[in-house]
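name: query_chain
kind: protein
chains: 1
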Amino acid sequence: MVDCMDFPETWGEFVDYYGYVDKSRKVFVGDVEVIPRFRAEQWLEFISRRAESMSFEVDTEAMLMEYPQDQEENEYRFIDAAWLDKVAAGLTAGAVKHPGETWKSIPPEEHAARAIRHLNMYRKGDRSEDHLINASMRCMMASVLADEIEERQSKDFEKY
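structure:
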């Protein structure tokens, strides 16, 4: 059946063609774009068959050697730019809402607990806010504060 169907090449095109919004809200609350499961399965089979006929090899060594003079211990090209932009936007909004870096007065353990709370809310299906980005921000805060505490303790230890 899949062999005779002409499917879009990309996921975005597939969603544009086969997706629809459940306006009746019988299944979802809010305007959620859905795709019939059988169409998604057909498209995945179509893509799988195409992939079998192609050769996909990722040469990470070549990728790292593409700009050998720029190879660093911390390669920022591996950080997703869109995710980083969302984290920066969230931190900026937080700085406006809570001026004065008040997050630094919260212990790292509390930031970690709040990150876990966001992850759990996401796992339970809550999409009322971007819980994954909020968890990312909380993990950054916990990490920064834990490093600062460790550095202070190390300097205090060196004094004696």
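note: The CA atoms of residues 118 and 134 lie 7 Å apart.
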